[in-house]
Amino acid sequence: MTRVLGIDPGTHRLGWAVIGGTKSKPHLLACDVLEFPQHTSSAEYLQKIHSFIDSLLLKYHPDKLGIEALFAQKNVKTAIQVAEARGVILFTFAARGYVWHELSPNTVKSAVAGAGNAGKAEVRRMVGLLLNLDTAQLLDDTTDALAVALAAQIL
Q: Could you tell me the residue range of the domain that residue 107 belongs to?
């Protein structure tokens, strides 16, 4: 029985999910988004990300951690902000002695939907099927974090 924390990092919305079970029979333990108002300062949201991720680690004691790797961004400012958020998350993992899997979007899509070029709708559908979960009301960030957790569980 493995417990996996999956993170979809973002600037003002961070998706997270904790799944349990086995590779062949995963189940949802918890998921949501950590969201900040649009004009939250970097100093404030980076500190809150650290505190929040630390609290998830202490609450769920995951056996595996997965985080989506930074992929090419057209907007340099957004890429820098996501990289800063990822840095805080990775620091928090390391400070608690964890190792983690950094998963490219294509790796996540391939693990969950069977194809690295799968669209958001197909990933959402497969996350729902794999976890026996209605994903219609979930934000994309939450669904993405669930997909990261499922992919990390397979590793």
A: 4-154
CATH number at residue 53: 3.30.420.10
| Tally of structural domains, the chain | 1
Residues annotated catalytic, as ranges: 8, 68, 141
pTM: 0.96
pLDDT tens by residue, 50-90:
999 999 999 999 999 999 998 766 788 888 889 999 999 99
Annotated binding-site ranges for Mg(2+): 8, 68, 141
Residue 139 tokens read as: 């934000």
Burial 34-50 (b: 16+ CB within 10 A, else e): bebeeeeeeeebbeebb
What is the C-alpha separation between 107 and 11, in angstroms, rounded? Answer: 22
**Which token pair is 108?**
């996540």
Q: Are 10 and 85 in contact (CB under 8 A)?
A: yes
